[in-house]
Amino acid sequence: MASLLSRFCRKLALPGSAHGSRMTSTTACGSETVKSLNLYSAINQALHIALETDPRSYVFGEDVGFGGVFRCTTGLAERFGKNRVFNTPLCEQGIVGFGIGLAAMGNRAVVEIQVADYIYPAFDQIVNEAAKFRYRSGNQFNCGGLTIRAPYGAVGHGGHYHSQSPEAFFCHVPGIKVVIPRSPREAKGLLLSSIRDPNPVVFFEPKWLYRQAVEEVPEHDYMIPLSQAEIIREGSDITLVGWGAQLTVMEQACLDAEKEGISCELIDLKTLLPWDKETVEASVKKTGRLLISHEAPITGGFGAEISATILERCFLKLEAPVSRVCGLDTPFPLVFEPFYMPTKNKASSSSSLSSPSKTHIF
Amino acid sequence: MAQHLKSSSKSILLNILRHNIGFSSPSHASRHLRHNLPHGPLTTRLSPNPITRYCNTMVDTLSSIGSHEDTNSQVMDFPGGKVAFTPEIHFISESNEERVPCYRVLDDNGQQLTNSQFVPVSKEIAVKMYSDMVTLQMMDNIFYEAQRQGRLSFYATAFGEEAINIASAAALSPDDVIFPQYREPGVLLWRGFTLQEFANQCFGNKSDYGKGRQMPVHYGSNKLNYFTVSATIATQLPNAVGAAYSLKMDEKDACAVTFFGDGGSSEGDFHAALNFAAVMEAPVLFICRNNGWAISTPTSDQFRSDGVVVKGRAYGIRSIRVDGNDALAMYSAVHEAREMAIREHRPILIEALTYRVGHHSTSDDSTRYRSADEIEWWNKARNPLSRFRTWVESNGWWSDEAESDLRSKIKKEMLEAIRVAEKTEKPNLNHMFSDVYDVPPLNLREQELLVRQAIKSHPQDYPSDVPL
Q: Which of A98, A137, A141 sits opposite B241 (nearest CB)?
C-alpha cells in the first residue's frame, strides 16, 4: 500500500510540477533543486522558510518544541529559539486565542492543534473572534497573520479521536479560509500561501500521508495560490472532486473506470473556503457528471455544498444525479473503519461512475 | 527582584498581604509609595492534636504547607521540583479564614485614610480624571434615555464603575493595548474618543469606524489602541496574552490590559488566559470588575472562591484586590501593576470590587432580581464620583461652579453629538461585503449583485436610509 501511494504521489505530482504544462498552480521558475520528501518534511520545510523570511513569525502548540508528535516542527526551536518556537499548555482555546492576539499585533502566528479531533475547544475563538476580527472592527484591526494547522483524517487505527475530518464545520464560517493539501509538494506551497495570506486560515494536513506520501519537493521558497482548484487528471465523461488523502483513493477509482472506457476528470479543490466554483462548473459542463468524495460523514459534509452549487449552475448539463461517496453518519469507528471509509470500489459502484447495471447507492 | 511563592517565604508573604497594598514584592512598591512598609511577626499555628488536624478545622492558609518543624525535613524530587514530605494527612482548606483584604485610599466619604499608600496624582490628572468620570456618567445617562425614547436600539451603562474605567486608563500609557469586555468605554474616553465618535458607533452611521456592523457600545479604535468590543464573554483574555507577548518580544515599553467581569471569570477562556500568561511570562494586566452581578446572577451563584483575586495564585500570578469605587486606589494599583508587568515580564491580576448600579443593559430590568433599595444604597453610599470629588475639592482643585460648568458643557455636547449622529447617513451597502476578507472573494461579489437585484425588485423590503 505504501509503495502504491508513493508511486501515486509522484504520479499526482506530475501534472502540478514545473514541466507539467497545463497547470498554473506553481510559481516555481528557473532552475530549482528538488528533494524527495514526505509530507511532514515538506511541511517542516515550509515552516523553516516561513520563520526565516519573517522575523515576526511564531510557531507554537502542544509539544512543538521537540519537533512535534508528527515531527512537523523538527529543528525549528533549535534554529529560531524558544521565544519563537515553543510549547504551550494543553489548552486549544488558549493556543488559538493567544495566536489571535499575536496576529492582531501584526505577527504571523502559525499554531498547531495536535490532532483536528481536538480543535473544538478553539471553535469559539475561531468563529467568534478570528473570523470576525477584521469585519467587526471596520478593518481597523485584523488577525490575518493567524494560521491554524491540524492533522486530520483516517490513519488506519485512529478511532473516534484520531481520525476526524472536521472541515465542514469551518467551511460554514465567513471570514476564515480552509485549505487542505493532497501531497508533500502541494502542502509546502499551500502552507506558505496560507501563512502569508492576510486572512486567518485553517490548514488541515492529511496525517495518513505524513510518512506514506513521498514526492519531489522543490527546496526553494514557493507558494501555491489559494482558492484555485487544480485539474490533476483530465477527462471527458465524469468529473470527480475531492481533497487531501481522498484523492489517492479517487485516482484509483479513475484508473479502474478507465479500464471500462470511462474517461475521468479529477479535480483537487485544495481550498474549501472560499472554493473555486468556476473550475468545477466548467468541468461539469464539459463532462455532465459529478462525483464528490470525502472521508467526513456524508450528512452535512462539504460535498453537499458542492453538489447544491453545481446543481444550481449546471442542471441542464447534468446527465446523472450528483454522487457523494463519503464516510458514514457514525462516529469514526475503530474495528469498522474499513466499512466506514469511502473506498475506491464504493466510488466505482456509485451511480455516476458505473454503468446502470452495476449501480449501487453510496 | 521577583518573589517566588516558596513555602519558606510564606511568612513574608502573609505580612505583605496583610499590611501593604498587597503586592508580594515590597522593594518595588516602596519606591513609589509615601510610607515604608511595616513588617510584623507572623504567628504560626501548630495544632497539637493529630485528630484535629485530620479533621482540618484549624489550618486555613496554603502557605502553611511544609511549615511545621516537627515533620522530617525530607524532601523529594518530582518533575517540577522539590517538595517536602509530611506524615500528616492534611487537606488545604477550601478558603482562608479571612478574606483577602481590599486596598483603598479614600474612605466612603472621600476622606484620605491616614496610613494609606498611594501613587501621587497631579492636579491636572486629578481634574481630568474627575471630569472624565462625570462625562462618562452623563454620556451613559443621555444615551440610555435616547434608547428609552426609541432613538437607539440598545445601550449598556457603566454606572457605578466610573472609577474603574477612568482611573485605570489614567494610570496607563497610550501605548498600552486594551482588550475590553463591553463596560469600559471610559478608557476610550480618557484617551480622547469624542462624544461624537461614541454616538456615531451607537447610531451605526457612516462615520462609525466599525462601519455599522455591530450593536451599540461595541466600540473600537486602532488609533487609541482599543481593540473592538465583541459581546462574547472573556474571549478577549487569551487574545490580550498573545498581544502582551508580542509587546515583550518587540521590547516595547507597554503592556496589554484586559477587562472582564465576575461572570467572565467563570469562562474557560479566563483559565486558559491566566495559565498562558504565567507560562509565557506575558506583560498583561487582568482587571476584573467584580460588580456583584452577571445579568441576574449574583456572585454567590458564580463561584465559591473568595472572589476572583485568589485565583491568581492558582496560576502563579501576583494579584491584588482593590476598592473599585476608589479612584486613587485604582490608579495606584494599576500604576504599580503596569510597572511590574513590563519590568518583570509577568501578568498581574487586579480584582476591583464594585457594584453595577445600572441594569445589565437596556434589555434588562434589574429590579426583577434585586431590590431597588440595594441599588440606591450603592449609588449613594459608595458612589465613586462623590468620593473622588471630595478628595479633589479638598485639594482646592474643584468647585461647585466648575461642576455645573462641566455638566452643562457635556450636556450640550452630548445632545449635539446625538443630533448629528442621527442625521448622518448609514454606511453604504457595499460595506456589508467588505472586510469579511481583505479582498471580497467571488462568492461575495456575486451575492452583492443578487442583493442589489432584490432591492430593485422589492425596494419596500429594505430600509431606505442605507445608501446603495
A: A98
Distance from CA of A176 to the nearest CA of B (A): 8
Residues in chain A predicted with pLDDT less than 50, given as ranges, are 1-29, 356-362
Q: Which residues pair with B83 in a beta bridge?
A: B76
CATH 3.40.50.920 fits A230-353, yes or no: yes
Q: What is the mean pLDDT of residues B390-395?
A: 98
Residues of B in contact with A103 (CB under 8 A): 242
Model ipTM?
A: 0.91
Flag if B269 and A93 touch (Cβ within 8 Å).
yes
Q: Report the distance separating Cα B421 and Cα A2, nearest Å.
A: 66
In angstroms, the separation between the Cα of residue A144 and the nearest Cα of chain B is 8
**In chain A, which residues have their Cβ closer than 8 Å to the Cβ of B232?**
124, 128-129
**Structural domain boundaries in chain A:** 34-218, 230-353
Q: Please classify residue A120 by burial: count the beta carbons closer than 10 Å to its beta carbon, then call 0-12 exposed, 13-18 middle and 19+ buried.
A: middle
Q: Length of chain B in residues, anyone?
A: 468
Q: What angle do CA B89, B91, B95 make, to 5 degrees?
A: 160
Helix (H, G, I), strand (E, B) or coil at B416: helix
CATH number of A34-218: 3.40.50.970
DSSP per residue over A28-39, as a string? --SS--EEEEEH
* Residue B19 CB burial class (10 angstroms; 0-12, 13-18, ≥19): middle
Q: Tell whether B433 lies on the interface with A, counting CB pairs under 8 A.
A: no
- Could you tell me whether strands A57-61 and A108-112 are parallel, antiparallel, or unpaired per DSSP bridges? parallel
